[in-house]
Amino acid sequence: MSFRVSGWLIVLVLIMGIPGLAFYRNARLETRFARVHAGLTDLEVLNVLGKPAWIEPCGKSFGPPKEHCMEYIYRNSFAPIVPEYWSVSFNANKQVVATYRYDSP
């Protein structure tokens, strides 16, 4: 196989592989998000979902503000083109109090 053909093959694999990994990540996040429930600790959530895209006070980006509440936000791999986000809210004791999936039609 010539260098030119193998170069194009690498490009093709990258073009197909990167979106494929993003779709896989989204499906895995959706499945694992269903396992998160009230009472889990922040460390347990990190073990299930991994590192969030960002952490902020509840209500800063989505929903009404809540006192003594932090929120882990996980985003769709294609956000903001695909506006889909998963939120896990924690109380002052770092336990899950709510989960929510934000998306737009």
The tally of domains stands at 1
CATH arch. level architecture: 2-Layer Sandwich
Helix fraction bin: 25-40%
CATH class: Alpha Beta
Spatial gap, N to C terminus? 47 Å
Strand content: 15-25%
Per the CATH scheme, the topology name is Beta-lactamase Inhibitory Protein, Chain:B, domain 1
Number of strands: 4
Overall geometry: elongated
Which consecutive residue ranges, at least 5 long each, have pLDDT under 50? none
Number of helices: 2
User: Which structural class matches the secondary elements?
Assistant: alpha+beta
What is the averaged pLDDT score? 89
Major beta-sheet overview? 4 strands, antiparallel
Order of helices and strands: HHEEEE
User: Gyration radius, to the nearest Å?
Assistant: 18 Å
Brief write-up:
37% of the residues lie in helices and 24% in strands. It has 105 residues and is of the alpha+beta class. The protein has one domain: 2-Layer Sandwich (Beta-lactamase Inhibitory Protein, Chain:B, domain 1).
